[in-house]
Structures are given as C-alpha cells and as structure tokens.
Design brief:
Number of strands: 0
Order of helices and strands: HHHHHHHH
Number of helices: 8
Largest sheet: none
C-alpha cells in the first residue's frame, strides 16, 4: 500500500482484523498532529474491546510509541484520544498528577462544580488521592462541547436579531445561549488547566 494515507492504510488492516499490521503502519510513518494522530486513535479504538494478552500485544507497542514522541502536545493528545476509548497509555509519564483536592481547587477558581464529573468518571472519596486526569479531561472537554452545541442551536433559532425588535422568548433564548457559552468556556478552561505541565 505504498503511497496510501496513513489513515486509509490503518483502516484497511483494521477491517481485516490485523491490528499488529495496523500498529506497524503507525510505527513506520512520521508522527504528525492530523492524519497520523487519527490513525493512532483508530488503533486505540480497536484495542479497547480486546482483553488479556491480545490487548497487551496492541496496547504496549502503542504506549511505547507514544512515550517516544518528541512533540509533547501530540503525546498528550494521543494519550487523551486513547482514554476516550478506555485505553490507558499513561502511567504517570505524560500527564501531570492531580489529586481530588487539586481538581476541586481548579474547578472552584474557574467557576464549575467538579462533582458533576462524578456522573461520568470515578472520583476518589479522599481528597488527597489521585484522580484519573485523562478521564476528567476527556469528560470536561465533552461537557464544553455539549454546552457549545446547545448555545449554537439556541442562537440559530433567533434569526437576524439586529434587524428587528426581539420577542420575549427570543431574548430568553439568547440569554440562555450566552449562559451555555460561558459554561462551555469554563469547562474548556478546566480541561486546559489540568493538563498544564504535561510532559
């Protein structure tokens, strides 16, 4: 498959159930933040349902590959992409270690309720215990995206507000859209603050 895009080649081997060959493809290509990252994410997604030795044969080479990356942003994002599918490529080497207390402090300063995250990711009861940073960041990003989409949908329902006087329900929708955008900004800020200091 000489000359094929890395994403196409990885998908070719995934469809045939040859994940080892898919891993080999991403290992031989030059790492970059677009197609290569998407191909690596696809390999992580395929590894997620596997168990035992079969999973280790895919997960460990991918983990080694990620840890060897010189681009720290690509390394961080590869770890977070994998975590979306339940694959843990980081054992403290990439993302900073945070406790539940760190999470509570960051969330308080930004203005969100960190306990909402407990609906989607396990948080330790003790505040001095470490949290799953990758899991919390993935959920925070998802919440930011959800609030952003809500804001866009509400704004789209109010056509050309500059040309006319708004009806009361339209003003309410725009106010709600502003509120949703503010929440989106805050959750995104929390996700960024938690990965500051990634290696």
């Amino acid at each position: 498959m000489s000359g094929a895009r890395v994403t196409d080649e990885v998908n070719f081997w995934r469809k045939r159930g040859d994940l080892k060959r898919a891993v080999r493809v991403v290992r031989t290509r030059v790492p970059e933040r677009l197609r290569w990252r998407a191909a690596l994410s696809a390999v992580s997604e395929s590894a997620a349902p596997l168990r035992g030795r079969s999973r280790a044969q895919i997960e460990e080479p991918v983990r080694e590959l990620v840890l060897d990356l010189h681009d720290f942003i690509l390394r961080r994002e590869a770890v977070l992409d994998a975590r979306r599918f339940g694959v843990d490529l980081d054992r403290g080497e990439v993302l900073p270690m945070r406790t539940r207390w760190d999470l509570k402090r960051h969330a308080f300063l930004i203005g969100v309720d960190h306990e909402l995250l407990g609906r989607y990711v396990s948080l330790p009861e003790e505040f001095d215990r470490r949290i799953d940073v990758a899991g919390v960041v993935v959920v925070s990003r998802a919440l930011a995206n959800t609030h952003r989409q809500r804001a866009d949908r509400l704004s789209d329902r109010v056509a050309s507000p500059e040309d006319r006087t708004l009806a009361q329900h339209e003003r309410i929708m725009l106010e709600r859209a502003t509120y949703e955008r503010d929440l989106a900004r805050k959750w995104a800020a929390l996700s960024r603050s938690l990965v500051e200091g990634s290696r």
